[in-house]
Each structure stands twice: as C-alpha cells, then as structure tokens.
Amino acid sequence: MSVPFCSLKYAHDQIKRDVEKAINAVYRRGQFILGAEVEAFEKEYAAYGGTKYCIGVASGLDALYLSLHLLGVGPGDEVIVPAHTYIASWLAITRTGAKIVPVDVDPGTMLMNATHVKMAINKNTKAIMPVHLYGASCDMSQLTAIAKKNNLYIVEDNAQGHGATWKDKKTGSFGDCNATSFYPTKNLGALGDGGAITTDSKELAEKAISLRNYGSTDRFTNPVLGINSRLDELQAAAVRIKLRYLDEWNEKRRAIAQTYLTQLKGVGDIMLPTESYASVFHLFVIRTQHREDLRSFLFKKGIGTMVHYPIPPHLQGAYKSMNFKKGDFPVSEKLAEMVLSLPMWPGLESEQVEWVVNQVKEFFESK
C-alpha cells in the first residue's frame, strides 16, 4: 500500500468546483492585486482568528518580518526565539537588523520554554517570538505574563497553528502583531505562496497596509519606505474557500492523530507528541533513536515520512557568523537527531493509517 507523506488531493477535490468558479470570477474582473477577494479574506480570517485586523502579504516570512518591523524592532534590539523551529523564524529577525537570541525548547512539548525565556531577557530585549510548531500551541499564559511584566512585545509565528487554541483562544491572537503562512501544505494553504499579519491595533494595521505596498496608500505617494509584499487576488480567492473547511479538516487531523497516539503507545522507544486536543496536528511528529533505520524501512513499505528539522538554525551555515556550536542548545539538537513526521493530512484513510501503524510496529518487533 502506498501512503504519501502529504497529499492535497482530498481537500482539493472537495473544493474544486468552488475554487475554479472563484478563480474564473477573478479572471473576468481583471483585478489581480489588492481587490475584493483580498479584502473579503482579510475580514473573514480576522473574524475566524479572533482579531480585529488581518493584512494579507506575499509569504509567511514577509509576515514575520513586517510584524517585527511594525513594532519598531531593529538594530540594537534583541528578539527571543526558539532554537527548534524552521529557519524562517530566525531569518525574519535577521532581516530587521536585530539580534537573534535563541532559547532551548521544552523536552516534552518541543515548544518555547518559558523558564529559558525569562533567563534570556536583558535591557536590549524587545520582543518574544513564540512558534506554534507542529500545530500545537505554546503556553501563551506564561509567555504573555512574562512579556507584560518586562514590557516586551510578542510576535506569534502561527504558520503551523491555523485553528489551534490556547485556553479556547485562537493562536495568532495573543501577540501585539502576529504572522502566518499559507504555504500550500499548511492546514490553511493557498495554491502558491501567501501569508498574513493579524493584530488588534488599528494603527499597526494601517501601517502594515502601507508597508506591504511600497509604503503607499495613495498611488504614486510614498511617505514611508515600504516593500512589495501583497497577497494576490487569486490566492485570496482560493484561501477564502479553504477557510470554510478548516475546522472540518482539522477535526480529521485530530482523528488520525488519535489513532496514532492510541496504537503507537508503548511501541519500541517511540516518544509520542504531547496529547492535546487543542493541537491541530499540522504534523504528527514522533521521536526515536532509530529514526534513519525506521524511515528507510517505511520507505520500502511505500510510506512517506519527513524530518522537521534535521539541522537546527544555530548549526546552519547561514548563521555560522554567530559562532554557535554543537551543545549550545542540547534539547533542540537532540530533537534534530530523533524527530520523524508520519503521514498526516485530511483524507488519509483509516486503512492507510492502519498500514503505517502496523509497519512501525513490525519494524520495532525486530529490535
């Protein structure tokens, strides 16, 4: 049996007619940049996530950078970020000119560790960037309390947390200015690149609208330095339709995850993700000392897997100049050696999940 790591076919087949109709409508109108679809999506996504404003931009990285920039983060400032995350979280900070201050993650949740955050704060700290990794929410109660006590900004990286909650409040609604990505494989994915900023601040929202469009709100008038980062009409049209299905698709992810959690408990040396109904399981990530052998075994059985992420940002060549070394963030480095993402997507059939489970069990029976 073949079980791809990720497939968009189920979701795209379900919405095919609606998406084609919406795209054709955009085509007929002939307005492809900053039109009715973007405006409608921004209102709908803000309402879904529980924020007052949403500003569509070209990518998740742009959303992170602009969120930091809007809060005045720049040279001389420091931003605290997890050591275990995708490198985009770090790149956004670098782009502002601020200093990256990594902290190790919690060994259980694999998310930002509030105790380490407290220890990393100094007079130059300006913001904390929680990353809601793998679909699970960081402890926003602790992090917002720390930020408030120390007069710091919070910028949530919510690229993997569409629909996730912390104490019944959606992720992406806690921070001063927050960022998300609509990369196609995300829980809420576009048909190409796309991203958004969310905030409750009217002032920040108005600035973001200007900054994403060359620093302009009136054509050919540019009072501030901006960039070109706009969610286009075609992507907005598609994501608007997908947003209607997001909760349904997240429930399917949770059901698949529950099977994994139940059936793989106690198998070999596997460490399962922290069980949390609030997670939307963008990825289902296990940990094992036998990762490479298990991955090879599953590949031969027709099962796709991925590693998120094999090299932590502090050991990437891109950050060689920061002089980090192996051992600086031991939990994150150990995760890089052990994490393995199993197939996870809405439409994954029960027979396919059972096949994955049985093959994982078969592998460990020989150990």
3D structure, described in words:
The chain is of the alpha/beta class. It folds into 2 domains: 233 residues, Type I PLP-dependent aspartate aminotransferase-like (Major domain) (Aspartate Aminotransferase, domain 2, 3-Layer(aba) Sandwich); 120 residues, Aspartate Aminotransferase, domain 1 (Alpha-Beta Complex), CATH 3.90.1150.10. The chain has a 4-stranded parallel beta sheet, sandwiched between helices. A 3-stranded antiparallel beta sheet has the order 1-9-8, with helices on both faces. Helix 4 links the parallel strand 2 and strand 3. The model has no long low-confidence stretch (mean pLDDT 97).
Descriptors:
3-stranded antiparallel beta sheet; 367 residues; 4-stranded parallel beta sheet; alpha/beta; 2 domains; 11 helices
Element layout with pairings:
Elements: H1 9-29, H2 36-49, E1 53-57, H3 60-70, E2 78-82, H4 88-96, E3 99-103, H5 114-120, E4 125-128, H6 140-149, E5 153-154, E6 165-166, E7 169-170, E8 178-181, E9 195-199, H7 202-211, H8 233-263, E10 284-287, H9 291-300, H10 330-338, E11 339-342, H11 350-365
Parallel strand pairs: 2-3, 2-4, 4-5
Antiparallel strand pairs: 1-9, 6-7, 8-9, 10-11
CATH topology of the largest domain: Aspartate Aminotransferase, domain 2
- Alpha plus pi helix count: 11
Unreliable residue stretches = none
For CATH, the homologous superfamily of the largest domain is named as Type I PLP-dependent aspartate aminotransferase-like (Major domain)
Order of secondary-structure elements:
HHEHEHEHEHEEEEEHHEHHEH
Mind telling me the CATH class of the largest domain?
Alpha Beta
Shape: globular
Rg of Cα set: 21 Å
Distance between the termini: 23 Å
Beta-strand percent range: 5-15%
Q: Average pLDDT across residues? A: 97
What is the helix fraction of residues, given as a range?
Answer: 40-55%
Q: In the residues, how many domains can be counted? A: 2
- The assigned structural class equals alpha/beta
State the major sheet: 4 strands, parallel
Biggest sheet, spatial arrangement of strands: 3-2-4-5
